[in-house]
Amino acid sequence: MAKPAKYLFVGAAEPWSGKSTTVLGLSYQLQQKKVDIAFGKPLGTSLNGSNRKVIEEDAKFISESLKLEENRLAPTLLSLDKFSLEKRLSGDDTKNYQKSLAEQYLQVSFGDLLLLEAPSDLEEGILFDLSLPQMAEVIDASILLVVRYQSLSSLEKVLDAKQRLGKRLIGVVVNDVPSEDIGTVNNLFVPYLEKHSIPVLGTLPKTDLLRCISVRDLVHELQAEVLCCSNRLDLLVETMAIGAMNVNSAVKYFRKRNNTAVVTGGDRVEIQQAALETSTQCLILTGKLPPPAFILNRAEELEIPIISVDLDTLTTVEIIDKTFSQAHIHEPIKAECIRQMMSEHFDIDRLLSLIDLNPATTLS
């Protein structure tokens, strides 16, 4: 008889803390330990427009990266989009989602461990009775909390979560720690939490690569037109530069940056030319003005995509900033970075002990 699965949520107290990063890295480590894992994300964030079938992009990427069989994928119950929220608020949706969660998660065999990515914070999903604390209670799940380090005051979010989650909170991952703060985290932050019976299972350093976004992401978020090099949209962008100065200043400015997306007006030909001769991954032209033919030809030679947006520079920059802050992990190079980082900085053996899961004795 198969051993019933244990349930582990990877959650956060605030959005964009690094849940997907932690889930992916943790999953690789569990597989190395020969733990028979399954994965799920009960609340999704994206839909197929044709039939409103829930398609969760992060869940799809993680399952493909881990090469999980279909019977090791738990279903996504609903998407928290405007349509779903309006139906719930109007009373058209009266479904008992906790019952649905229990039926689809407790009555199916998911191997040794069902690893679940929680909503973006502790409150999201409460309108459907599917907040993290509520779901964990229904399926008797443990919770691993990811906190993005900003300062020592980040401790307060962990302590608040401990009060709300109680014994279900089995540990914390401190994510995105700048190099200059590693000593502070190791000498003050971590010991304080351990002293208050909150195990710290990992401290993950800040890594610029994970904040990179692809040119394809920019095209999507800006609803841009690709003018050339459509086969190079997988290029990764580390920084953004605004070409609003004179050409001499622009050249000096661009040369100080690497793997840059340069935003400039479609009429600033001299800035476009300067950008193409530096470490530019993408040229973003505002105002819907086409560049001259020689700019397009030079970009083709250098294999640098040029995209055009029907937006002003300020709006374009705001959208790009938001895209950077919400960078996804869907590129293989990021997955490899996460795998290495978690293997170096996360204590997988301590986690297995805390959830009372010994892979040497699990039954298949």
From TrEMBL:
InterPro entries: DRTGG (IPR010766), P-loop_NTPase (IPR027417), Phos_Acetyltrans/Butyryltrans (IPR050500), Ser_kin/Pase_Hpr-like_N_sf (IPR028979). It holds the Pfam family DRTGG. It comes from the Bacteria. Residues 217-322 form the DRTGG domain. The lineage of its organism: Bacteria, Bacillati, Cyanobacteriota, Cyanophyceae, Nostocales. This is DRTGG domain-containing protein.
